[in-house]
């Protein structure tokens, strides 16, 4: 079996501890340890690239304006389990549609009150979405009160007055169902936690593994009171334990002096243990990174790994000449069901590109198939109604073409994405075509 890594060529002190090794069951990984070394600053172009990415927009606390995500919205959700309202920040895709055919992945970020780290995590998601390395997702940041943070990330056996059980109930019995009902999120759920929440996101993973697709533990520790969560992870993810679909666990540490301990113990234990084939784990160490630098360094490769099955399978539709067919699309969705627990969108750009390419190749049935899939996901992408109508006219289906133009005009009335001049021009085009069909 061959090994490779996103981090080949990096100074070993700054790279994850090894190359992922693909196993036959798909996407499982184990990473070899690398001894800490002092790297030469900017020793490789890839190190320079990472530093540039992590410094994007640091002078401002507000997020970068994005073509792919809306501005953040702050809201509150009253928790029965915690008996208090909790502050949330929600960031939706620009094309958000609560009635679309497939559901949105959910990314839950703890410690929203840390503005700089939250902003950098958002920028990483936005960057990967921009280049189709992950699907558009609903991002929810959960604020924690500094005075309650220790109690809410501790269990009763380890600390008097601990409220970790209440937080677990809030997240899984209240917050996640609320996100599903309000923002059309589904079974693909990823937790991102740093420091104490790196620890507690690991606790949540052990307790609610079947509810999650990914967990990113940044600067976690694994020992609190009498609990040793290294043992708990290896026990929970033994081959005999239930885990019907892939769960991707990534844990990341910084330097051994200022960052949290436990990384080496977890890494060694997972390498020794016989684990469930659906438990996909990997560790990364950035030995020159202090505690608060770790999130910006660790989240990009971790998100890449979590959504690699989506991006790799979806990329098969992007070659030219087009290779996608209805059967291939069904196979894509079957793969998403297997890995993430439900169907997922192929994305606006891919669906529209497939329609255009098949139309150019005069494979009209396939073009119609993918354009109709697009409208199921993005009904306000109004230009597609014109594309379908023109294709139907080529086939002599005047009545059906007229119906699509009428639907297109109706979609423009609620279109939030096109600027007013573009809407007016598209409406004029539709009306002119309709006039020829009366």
From TrEMBL:
<dbReference type="InterPro" id="IPR029058">
    <property type="entry name" value="AB_hydrolase_fold"/>
</dbReference>
<dbReference type="InterPro" id="IPR019734">
    <property type="entry name" value="TPR_rpt"/>
</dbReference>
<dbReference type="InterPro" id="IPR011990">
    <property type="entry name" value="TPR-like_helical_dom_sf"/>
</dbReference>
<protein>
    <submittedName>
        <fullName>Uncharacterized protein</fullName>
    </submittedName>
</protein>
<dbReference type="Pfam" id="PF00756">
    <property type="entry name" value="Esterase"/>
</dbReference>
<dbReference type="InterPro" id="IPR000801">
    <property type="entry name" value="Esterase-like"/>
</dbReference>
<dbReference type="InterPro" id="IPR050583">
    <property type="entry name" value="Mycobacterial_A85_antigen"/>
</dbReference>
């Amino acid at each position: 079996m061959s090994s490779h890594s996103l981090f080949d060529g990096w100074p070993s002190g700054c790279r994850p501890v090894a190359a992922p090794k693909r196993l036959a069951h798909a996407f499982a990984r184990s990473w070899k340890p690398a001894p800490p070394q002092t790297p030469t600053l900017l020793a490789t172009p890839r190190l320079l690239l990472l530093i540039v990415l992590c410094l994007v927009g640091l002078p401002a606390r507000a997020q970068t304006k994005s073509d792919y995500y809306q501005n953040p919205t702050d809201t509150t959700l009253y928790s029965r389990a915690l008996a208090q309202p909790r502050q949330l920040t929600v960031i939706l895709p620009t094309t958000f549609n609560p009635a679309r055919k497939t559901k949105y992945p959910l990314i839950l970020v703890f410690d929203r009150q840390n503005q700089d780290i939250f902003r950098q995590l958002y920028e990483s998601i936005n960057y990967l979405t921009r280049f189709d390395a992950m699907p558009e997702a609903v991002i929810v940041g959960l604020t924690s009160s500094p005075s309650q943070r220790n109690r809410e990330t501790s269990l009763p056996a380890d600390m008097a007055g601990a409220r970790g059980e209440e937080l677990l109930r809030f997240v899984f019995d209240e917050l996640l169902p609320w996100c599903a009902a309000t923002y059309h999120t589904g079974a693909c759920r990823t937790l991102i936690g740093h420091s104490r929440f790196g620890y507690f996101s690991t606790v949540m993973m052990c307790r609610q593994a079947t509810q999650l697709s990914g967990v990113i533990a940044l600067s976690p520790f694994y020992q609190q009171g009498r609990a040793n969560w290294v043992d708990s992870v290896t026990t929970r993810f033994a081959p005999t334990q239930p885990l019907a679909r892939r769960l991707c666990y990534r844990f990341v540490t910084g330097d051994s002096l200022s960052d949290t301990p436990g990384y080496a113990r977890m890494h060694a234990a997972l390498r020794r243990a016989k684990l469930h084939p659906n438990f996909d784990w990997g560790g990364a160490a950035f030995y020159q990174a202090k505690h608060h630098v770790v999130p910006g360094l660790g989240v990009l490769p971790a998100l890449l790994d979590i959504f690699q099955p989506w991006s790799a399978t979806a990329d098969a539709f992007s070659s030219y000449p087009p290779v996608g067919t209805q059967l291939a699309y069904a196979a894509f969705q079957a793969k998403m069901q297997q890995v993430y627990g439900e169907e997922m969108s192929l994305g606006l750009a891919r669906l529209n590109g497939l329609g255009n390419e098949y139309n150019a190749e005069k494979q009209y049935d396939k073009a119609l198939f993918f354009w109709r899939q697009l409208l199921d996901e993005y009904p306000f992408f109004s230009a597609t109604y014109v594309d379908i109508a023109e294709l139907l006219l080529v086939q002599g289906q005047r009545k059906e073409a007229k119906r699509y133009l009428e639907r297109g005009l109706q979609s423009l009335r609620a279109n939030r994405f096109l600027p007013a001049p573009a809407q007016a021009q598209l409406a004029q085009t539709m009306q002119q075509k309709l006039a020829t069909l009366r």
